[in-house]
TrEMBL record:
Residues 1-35 are annotated as: Disordered. Residues 139-299 form the DUF3152 domain. The keyword Membrane applies. It comes from the Bacteria. The chain crosses the membrane at residues 34-59. Residues 22-31 have a biased composition (Basic residues). The keyword ATP-binding does not apply. InterPro entries: DUF3152. It comes from Cellulomonas terrae. Keywords: Membrane, Transmembrane, Transmembrane helix. This is DUF3152 domain-containing protein.
Length: 312
């Protein structure tokens, strides 16, 4: 009988044995090429307008309406209708049933050719890279719905080498722009410095059956999905065909990556997908050298220097 290979996580040692499924825990520890185009004149608010009109399908209508009002001053009847449809899609969620949501079209006029006077460019506490990565709030939702929405859309990828299919999902209840998150994931995976750097591998996105799932989830849900690995509400994992990314890390990154959270998000995607590709953890080769991607940089990169790429 072949002994199963231990599951892997960006956290550290795994538990020695599996345990039965248990209800969601509330554990906490102290250690605690996107499709379409955006007019240049409104680049500063693309996260708000597109996020509110087409992608806040996992957060509910009241928050969406607030973002539309904040971004555009007032919402047109067509915009309000789009908001209500987006919210209704979220409220239709029940149990742990997985479904694909229909994209909501952006009504004409929602992207003005000139910014409105006094427009709020970014949500409090977020930068432009944060919004580009899909964040619509700097708050960390500790425990969300436990159900997941597939980000609709397909992308064949660069089409070089063997193609691996990826489905991107977001837990319902997170203030996250799903299409922006999916675009970040796929751009990272197909980056020239990524796993397909030698042309032997590329990644295609699908909203149907896929070889790999990349899931953004609340800390409590990550604990459930990664069990029996003890993620402690803090870290992420790549196992059983799922790269499960912790919202806490997606929002906050780590101290070493604090000045470049976008790089940490690239590290997180590449590292957990790396596990799905069969790569094990590596150690820092020496002080001042570049950290291997498969080093557990979510704890620390030092004495190496941080590196988010398999082939930088």
């Amino acid at each position: 009988m072949t002994t199963p290979e231990p599951l892997r996580t960006d956290q550290g040692p795994t538990r020695a044995s599996l345990r039965p499924s248990v209800p969601r825990r509330r554990r906490r520890t102290a250690h605690g090429r996107s499709a379409g185009r955006v007019l240049p004149t409104v680049a500063a608010v693309v996260g708000l307008t597109l996020g509110a009109a087409s992608a806040l399908w996992a957060a509910g209508a009241p928050q969406t309406a607030a973002l539309v009002d904040a971004a555009l001053g007032t919402a047109s009847p067509a915009a309000a209708d789009a908001v209500e449809r987006a919210g209704s899609q979220s409220r239709a969620s029940a149990g742990r049933e997985l479904r694909v949501l229909e994209p909501v079209e952006v009504p004409p006029g929602m992207l003005p050719t000139e910014p409105a006077p006094g427009i709020v460019a970014l949500p409090p506490g977020l930068t432009a890279p944060d919004v580009a990565a899909g964040l619509l709030s700097a708050d960390v939702v500790e425990a969300a719905a436990g159900t997941f929405s597939v980000v609709p859309g397909v992308d064949p990828g660069p089409g070089t080498g063997a193609v691996r299919t990826v489905r991107v999902e977001v837990e319902d209840g997170l203030l996250v722009d799903g299409p922006a998150f999916a675009a970040t994931v796929m751009a990272t995976l197909n980056d020239p410095r990524g796993w397909g750097a030698d042309g032997s591998l590329s990644f295609a996105r699908t909203d149907g059956d896929a070889e790999m799932r990349v899931i953004l989830a609340s800390p409590a849900t990550v604990d459930d999905l990664c069990a029996p690995l003890d993620t402690g509400g803090e870290v992420s994992c790549g196992t059983n065909g799922r790269a499960v990314l912790n919202l806490r890390r997606w929002v906050l990154a780590t101290q070493e990556y604090a000045a470049d959270k976008a790089a940490y998000r690239q590290y997180l995607v590449n590292h957990e997908v790396g596990h799905l590709l069969g790569h094990r953890h590596e150690r820092c080769p020496g002080a001042g050298q570049r950290a291997p991607l498969m080093q557990q940089q979510s704890y620390k990169a030092a004495p190496c220097t941080p590196n988010p790429w398999p082939f930088p």
